[in-house]
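Here is one chain, start to finish.
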Amino acid sequence: MAHMEPPKPNFQIEGNKLSNIKHVIGVVSGKGGVGKSSVTSSLAVTLKQKGYSVGILDADITGPSIPKMFGVSGPSVATPDGAYPVESESGVKIMSINLLLDNEDDPVVWRGPVIASTVKQFWTDVIWGDLDYLLVDMPPGTGDVPLTVFQSLPLDGIIIVTSPQDLVSLIVKKAVNMANKMDIKVLGVVENYSYIECPDCKKRMYPFGESHIDEIASESNLSVIAKMPLDPGFAKICDEGKMDQFETTDYDEFIDKI
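Its structure:
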């Protein structure tokens, strides 16, 4: 008699009854400081500009930055059916712990299980309404929150964000291996801080060294979604909470495929 593998347990949880979300995409990184939230935000705005309805679930509970980038503040409106996300100027729907705190400067000093439970509630207790895409901005690494999102939410895939530094190969492979173990599709890689472009001659300079992301992605059979520059103008938009004004064509080919 042939040996049969036992079925894998399904830990996915139901979303809010008033939410209708077509696609859920996680944005992950193997380490901090690579601009994962800025990639999430810029992709969200690009999708919105192309006519899609978009939301951002800010799962980085201890380091939330999405609301500040979009210039939005709480409190989120709560009803017996759930809480409503706060909308940016362009209509990107956002839910973040900062939108629920009495003072957004208060630190979130919680243990892992409590943080993971909060992320689940952002899925079950938030009224997202009709969305084409929900982007989940995750904290760096492979800890409680990424594991919770991978197991609990119906992810269509993840995007790995990295930067052109020496440990990139190891970091990308760790993220890919975790996704493979969890049967999550890797949609591709975004290299952030890839280069600086001279405003006068348009020559590209590489402050972190020449990019090797194409070779690294090829080793793992991944596509490179975009190479985002180190741009003072973009940093200014984020600092001023005007993320809705961001414009780029870097994501066009990727968006066409999804």
